[in-house]
Structures are given as structure tokens and as C-alpha cells.
Design goal:
172 residues; alpha+beta; PH-domain like; 2 domains; three-stranded antiparallel β-sheet; elongated
Length: 172
């Protein structure tokens, strides 16, 4: 028996939205490197401030540097995990639904299976926030209570979110 590719029952493919896995890898490595240095520096500053606790004055610098380091370590770990678990990720729109392709497999979603589309943030082309992929995010909630998420590391993420929303919103 020959298996059908995911999305074959969704009609013709009308558009494709690849995810920039290379940018995920670069962000993961860069954030881990900077986060590691900041965490070590923050820990050393904290130790120096604790050792000099008898002096007057308070500084937020050790905690801020340590906090920044920990946030960057988390972000870097998240991006590397996404890169490793979802290589070659992309979204293909079809006439009757969409397919979410990942290295773990493909998930076909019919328009009728989408319960809600939530747009989070504002798409801003260019700049650090956009290149980090955190300015705009979209959460597609399915009727089975599962969710599919994407951000601006997905090519034209705002267009993808709007098209899914338009296909699944009740017609007035």
C-alpha cells in the first residue's frame, strides 16, 4: 500500500512559508555564548558584592548582569532545541487547509479543524526584535485542544497568520 503525502486531501498547494532554521542556529549559539559569559561575570560580581557587604551603598549591577546571562542561556537553549527538533520546518497552505512540516513528521490541518487563531504582538519588518523572531507570534488553536505556533522566523509570518485566520473565521 502506498501512503499519501500529508496534505494530499487538502487540495492544491497555494503558498509555502519556510522557517529560517539557520537563524535559529545562529541565535542559539550566540545567545549561549553571550549568556555564559554574562552569567560568569554576574556570579563573580555578586560574589564580590557579598564579600564587601559591610560597605555602604547598593548596586543592582550584579543581579542585572546575572539575570541577563540566565535569560540569554534560556533563549539560546530554546532556539537550539527548536533547531534540532524541527529541521526544515515549513508551512504549506492548500485550498482546504495547511500542512505543518517538521523533521518529526507532517501534520495536515483542515480549515474546519481550526478553533481559533491568536495574533500576538505586532509584525515589524527589520530591527533586532524582528530578527530575533519575537515581535509577532501566532498561535493556531485546534479543535482537539492542540496548538501550532510560529513567529517571525517563519517567512512572511504575518501573511501566514492572516491567511489562516481568513480561511477559518466565520463569514459575515
Amino acid at each position: 500500500m502506498v501512503s499519501q503525502p500529508a496534505g494530499s486531501d487538502l487540495g492544491e498547494r497555494t503558498d509555502s512559508f519556510p522557517v529560517d532554521s539557520g537563524r535559529r542556529l545562529g541565535q542559539g549559539i550566540g545567545s549561549l555564548a553571550v549568556g555564559s559569559v554574562a552569567t560568569v561575570v554576574g556570579a563573580m560580581l555578586s560574589a564580590a558584592y557579598v564579600a564587601d557587604a559591610g560597605s555602604p551603598g547598593v548596586s543592582l549591577l550584579p543581579g542585572a548582569v546575572l539575570g541577563l546571562g540566565l535569560v540569554l542561556l534560556f533563549f539560546g537553549g530554546l532556539r537550539l532545541t527548536q533547531r534540532l527538533t524541527r529541521p526544515d520546518e515549513r508551512f504549506d497552505l492548500h485550498e482546504h487547509g495547511f500542512v505543518h512540516h517538521t523533521g518529526r513528521g507532517d501534520r495536515a490541518v483542515r480549515w474546519a479543524d481550526v478553533a481559533r487563531v491568536r495574533h500576538l504582538g505586532t509584525y515589524r519588518d527589520g530591527g533586532l526584535v524582528h530578527s530575533s523572531g519575537v515581535d509577532y507570534r501566532c498561535v493556531v488553536e485546534l479543535r482537539d485542544k492542540s496548538k501550532i505556533r510560529f513567529d517571525t522566523l517563519t517567512d512572511r509570518a504575518d501573511v501566514l497568520g492572516s491567511k489562516i485566520d481568513r480561511h477559518t473565521s466565520p463569514q459575515s
